[in-house]
From TrEMBL:
This is NosL copper chaperone. Gene3D superfamilies: 3.30.70.2050, 3.30.70.2060. The gene is nosL_2. Pfam families: NosL (PF05573). It comes from Skermanella aerolata. Signal peptide: none annotated. It comes from the Bacteria.
Amino acid sequence: MMGRPGPTILVSAILGAVLLLLAACGEEQQASAPPAPHEVTDEAIGHYCGMALVEHPGPKGQVILQSRDEAVWFSSARDAIAFTRLPEEPKDIAAIYVTDMAKVKNWDHPERGAWVDARRAWYVIGSTRKGGMGGDEAVPFGEEQAARQFAEAHGGEVVAFDAVPESYVLGGSDHSSH
């Protein structure tokens, strides 16, 4: 006749179950971590303009899709935001990065490695600074205070990613409602 399991077996079974749960949580966190940003190369071509990114001044953007190894490049942060709002563009977005202009010394040639998660960035819209194709730009910053300082110097309004008006990224140049 078998007796009840001893306390050592019971504790071992519970401990094993807890360790399995923790391991599963760790794998889930690793799987959900966004991929690292890519760096702009001479071969990086703007998704909408079809031109080399290195030829354009100002902030850049990149969208990393789950279905592609290469980043989808944008000659402006504004275009990267527009990509996320257009119904015809892919929706399997793994990460979106834009240039953190607070980390950049040269507007015309932003330094490598100055990326910030686009969804966590602050944007100055309606400023006097123009984007990569000479259009209005949503100038990105990793910190709200840096965005506010830029807006004081160059005009514009500071907004979060989700508050950038669709009309600003998809419409023309008249943004008088902001």
